[in-house]
């Protein structure tokens, strides 16, 4: 029987991070200090997920695809093509910078990569917010003036969130995450971020972090105005649909099953609450775990407890 593929997390220090991955997900963090990100699935030159169990244990995701692309991704997948999705847990104890990722049509000319991403709010404090898009009526000229006056909050769309909420952030959308959020980010395989404003903060080294004002202004889609999140609900639904991926939210009562046939497509499964058996020799997937279901395998997931699962598919 084909097994799901699990990976070892890669933890990243961030000035806005904290230690909530320990308490919320039961992780043992590798060092002291603010851990802002856990890269769960990544195939980049600077960062490689390593398979944590099963027959390919110890291989990087790049090595596994180089040797088994047809089995993992399907017969038409080039062995040298990077895995197209990057999954992260974000522990946002403090507000992230106001930033944007370049749209696909201009990213290559700027030496960057486009990055469409989806945020699923796993936990949040009562006063937690997100910033996504512009306020109604805000213009490019207003934004430029507010940048000089340090009044950018007057131009951006800030709204409260609760656990289970979700929002798709397309490349070109101005955005930031407020403090108090634990977020599962599912995104294009990219690491290009242009910071336009950092709230006067300094980095972990005590100096102001680099800003990319010209690149940001060139990248912002001025037509993205007050987008609405998908609010939490106890129903099966597609919560994100883009050219890059589709994400389905699947609530599962204890004992419920979710099946996938062999030979359809590779999929990613993320357990955001509860515990789910994969039907193979591997231990159940617990809260916070993300696994790859290879193309060649047939899988039946069974909820050991009440659970919420995100299924990412239709990778571009």
TrEMBL record:
Its cofactor is Zn(2+). It comes from the Bacteria. Binds 1 zinc ion per subunit. The active site is at 195. Residues 5-107 form the Phosphomannose isomerase type I catalytic domain. Zn(2+) binds at residues 101, 117, 175. Pfam families: PMI_typeI_cat. Gene3D superfamilies: Jelly Rolls. One of its GO terms (biological process) is carbohydrate metabolic process. Keywords: Isomerase, Metal-binding, Zinc. One of its GO terms (molecular function) is zinc ion binding. This is Class I mannose-6-phosphate isomerase. It comes from Synoicihabitans lomoniglobus.
């Amino acid at each position: 029987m084909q097994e799901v593929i699990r990976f070892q997390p890669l933890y990243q220090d961030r000035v806005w991070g904290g230690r909530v991955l320990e308490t919320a997900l039961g992780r043992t963090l590798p060092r002291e200090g603010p851990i802002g990100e856990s890269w769960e699935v990544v195939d980049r030159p600077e960062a490689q997920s390593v398979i944590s169990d099963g027959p390919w244990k110890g291989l990087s995701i790049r090595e596994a695809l180089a040797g088994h692309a047809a089995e993992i991704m399907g017969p038409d997948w080039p062995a040298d093509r990077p895995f197209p999705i990057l999954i992260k847990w974000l522990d946002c104890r403090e507000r992230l910078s106001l930033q944007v990722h370049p749209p696909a049509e201009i990213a290559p000319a700027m030496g960057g990569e486009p990055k469409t991403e989806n945020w699923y709010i796993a936990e949040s404090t009562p006063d937690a917010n997100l910033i996504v898009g512009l306020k109604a009526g805000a213009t490019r000229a207003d934004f430029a003036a507010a940048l000089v006056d340090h009044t950018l909050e007057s131009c951006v769309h800030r709204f409260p969130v609760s656990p289970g909420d979700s929002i798709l952030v397309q490349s070109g959308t101005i955005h930031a995450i407020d403090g108090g959020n634990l977020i599962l980010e599912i995104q294009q395989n990219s690491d290009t971020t242009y910071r336009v404003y950092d709230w006067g903060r300094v980095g972990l080294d005590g100096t102001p972090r680099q800003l990319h004002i010209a690149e940001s202004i060139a990248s912002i889609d001025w037509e993205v105005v007050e987008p609405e999140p998908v609010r939490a609900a106890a129903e099966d639904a597609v919560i994100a649909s883009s050219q890059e991926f589709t994400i389905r939210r699947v609530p599962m009562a204890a004992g419920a099953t979710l099946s996938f046939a062999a030979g359809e497509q590779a999929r990613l499964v993320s357990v955001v609450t509860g515990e789910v058996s994969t039907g193979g020799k591997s231990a159940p997937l617990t809260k916070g775990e993300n696994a790859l279901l290879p193309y060649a395998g047939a899988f039946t997931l069974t909820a050991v407890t009440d659970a919420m699962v995100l299924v990412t598919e239709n990778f571009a």
